[in-house]
Amino acid sequence: MQKRTAQFSVLVWLLLACNAPEAVPPNQPTPVAGQACPDWVHNRHVVRGPDGELYPTWHPQVDPEYGCYFDHDHGDDPRTSLANPELPPFGYVGKLAGMPEAHEGFKVFVANRNTRNDEDRVALTSTRIVAHMGTGGVRRYSVRQHSLMFDLVAPSGHRVSVQGMADTGLVGSICQRDLTLGDADPSNDIGRTVMTLPGTGCHGNSPGSLYEIWAFRLRLADKVEVVASTAVFDPITTMNPANLSELHYTEQVFSGFSGLRGCDREAYHGPVYWYNRNGPEIFYTDAFGRPGGPIRQLVSRHDDVGIWMSQRSDGFQNQFKLISKHCAPGLGLKN
């Protein structure tokens, strides 16, 4: 009996030791649960990219080991995705493109097959979006291309696992967007629809509700085109169309809104267009989708202008919309 008790005590000690927080590095501050994490805690969340280098990656907003929090979030846990459960290397595509992207802006959206959304639609495929979309700064008003990773797995055998710098079109208000999309001229299409200062858009001095949505288009070597849209209901900043470098916090521009942190989001997964009937399924491109670069792309052998990605009693759609809420205490103004 004493031997069993001793063995049990040793087992408990081993379990506690395995789950114990790692020692604080010399000359570094000690993390405190419920407070902001020191930088060194954040810097532990890395993954090795395709080039063998280490890159920052997804992490929960509250560090699971120390209980301290980060001032930004990255959305859904990519490890829950049935399309691709690997941790994404944030910044890999931007590095190849020579276009560094702020770490806080990387957001993950997971939609697994059979998920039901707020419109009573059911996902028919499993998809994952990793998009660079933050609302805390003004650089997004002038930068048109942003990195996108997109994964899709369908029961029909359709599959996509691609990444690159996606085109997000021009920037403007929602009323400008509707006008440009209806004029049959694709060169002036607004893909980044943002909040603008009162009197410069179509919402007047009181918008009623806030909304910012981006349309990402990624075309790779004429084999596939992925369309995905990501949106926030609480954008942190608002644009001045006359001066894109001016910083205006939305909660100061429009009365009745406070605590906006770009954390109340949704995404439109799809549509996807296949032009790869004769393969190969695996090919390589540069960061802008041109053939012959270092980025490994996977596109199944299909030739289909979209597939059904969601279903409701009144019909099918070639995209799936899903709300994703990640608001929590401690989020800052760069999220």
Automatic annotation (TrEMBL):
Taxonomy, superkingdom: Bacteria
Secretion signal span: 1-23
Key words, A-Z: Signal
Protein name: Uncharacterized protein
Species of provenance: Meiothermus ruber (strain ATCC 35948 / DSM 1279 / VKM B-1258 / 21)
